[in-house]
Amino acid sequence: MQIIEAEDVERVALEDIDVSRPELFRNDTWQPWFARLRREAPVHFCADSVNGPFWSVSSHKLIKEVDTSNRVFSSSSKLGGIAIVDPPAEEGQIQGESFITMDEPQHMPQRMAVAPTVAPKNLAQLEPLIRERAIDILEQLPVGETFNWVQEVSIELTARMLATLFDFPYEERRKLVYWSDLATAVPEVTGDDSIDMNKRYEELMGAAAAFYQLWMSKAGQPPTFDLISMLQHNEATARMNEDPEQFLGNLLLLIVGGNDTTRNSISGGVMALNRYPDEYQKLRENPGLIPNMVSEIIRWQTPVIHMRRTAMQDYELGGRKIREGDKVVMWYLSGNRDESVFGDADRLIIDRPNARAHVAFGFGVHRCMGNRLAELQLRVLWEEIMKRFEKVEVVGDIERLSNNFIRGIKDVPVRLHPV
Ligand code: HEM
Questions:
Q1: CB of 370 shorter than 6 A to ligand 1
Q2: pLDDT recorded at residue 316
Q3: Residue 231 pLDDT > 90
Q4: DSSP letters spanning 364-400
Q5: Would you say the CB of residue 374 lies under 6 angstroms from ligand 1?
Q6: Among 111, 124, 158, 227, which lies 20 to 30 A Cα-Cα from 194?
């Protein structure tokens, strides 16, 4: 397919715009496309894409309308799930079903079973551990050398956190990262046709086997503070291991949920503060801004680019007629750049008064379950960074992921300037 450069945006016919092309996110050229959609067609129909026809919802207000209308717009995997790409349909293969791809009444009991792990009371207990791990990582960084922040900090911190949440063998924690990356690696999402889907499937079955083993090792034990134990001790999920679809799906959801997203917010924060040195200065002068900055970084980065729904009935949205069965994509990345809500929206402003109004965690019944945990990790990390480093300086080119679902960053070369 011909790659259209950003400056051509205004010349393309509205109906030919396809904002799902992964290269827009790899090259970071998505901004003018979404700006045009928000301006001219906040509910826009793309008749032809590798993912078939779909509606794009790009304004803050209409995204909230779709996300909170869960009786009209389904998340169910039976209708197409939560990503623009339809679930693969290989006969006999386990695809993994989780509560993020369920509607009511199935969704809520399962969500309630896992939610206490990341409730404020547990998070308060978790904070010292997160701090300890953050300090350990920061203290070992190679001062004076150029290194990839993504590998050494973003991935490492989130991998340690995941191993803790799952009570997964600590020394094997990078496997969790590998499985998470694999879970979102399908050609329609990444634009990479060379992905061996059979190998991917085998590896994911390896993940299921490892979790099954972990599950069995905890069966019959008294409850402990970790996700597997909580699932086992809750009526709604106690027999989850007997249903391979739900078992793999729910565990992958918790891994992907807690991994890519937080990781990319950590990397995005370093990039954004380097791009806007005035903001870095503000932060140095007033580290008390960190909690608000965390929300602003999540808005600016928007680690989950979109969520998809399927209309269960005809519905009029922003003056357009959505038909039953239509694919409707909420572009959170665009909602978070909506100038009618966020002035100078492309810019990071760490004391932005309404930073928390972002849609990066979604809205309604499926609103991110781990949002407080993600914020906690980011806050603690930045508090500890500011105690040690005058600046984390970006010294080379950023490499991004080719992916229309996860806004991912692969390489951020940095140098540290100790205080
Ligand atoms: C900055 C970090 C994060 C971002 C941006 C993020 C974003 C999202 C989004 C957009 C949704 C879907 C919302 C919707 O459909 O309305 C979601 C759901 C979810 N997230 Fe997160 N997430 C983050 C961190 C985490 C963490 C650390 C966990 C770990 C527990 C987590 C677990 C989940 C779960 C389990 C769901 C499904 C909730 C449901 O269906 O009821 N997320 N997240």
A1: yes
A2: 98
A3: no
A4: GGGS-TTHHHHHHHHHHHHHHHHHHEEEEEE-S--EE
A5: yes
A6: 158
For 70-100, how does the pLDDT look when each residue is reduced to its tens digit (9 = 90+)?
999 999 988 999 999 987 665 555 566 788 9
Residue 296 alpha carbon to ligand 1 centre in Å: 17
Ligand 1 centre to CA of 361 (Å) is 6
Q: What is the largest CA-CA distance in the chain?
A: 64
- Which atom of ligand 1 is least distant from the CA of 359? 10
- Among 130, 361, 373, 404, residue to substitute to test ligand 1 (most atoms within 8 Å of Cβ): 361
**Alpha carbon 386 to its chain's center:** 25
Q: What's the predicted TM-score (pTM) here?
A: 0.92
Does the beta carbon of 304 lie inside 6 Å of ligand 1?
Answer: yes
In this prediction, residue 1 carries a pLDDT of 41
Q: Are 154 and 268 in contact (CB under 8 A)?
A: no
Rounded Cα distance between 377 and 130, Å, is 7
Residues 6+ apart with CB under 8 A from 170: 160, 163
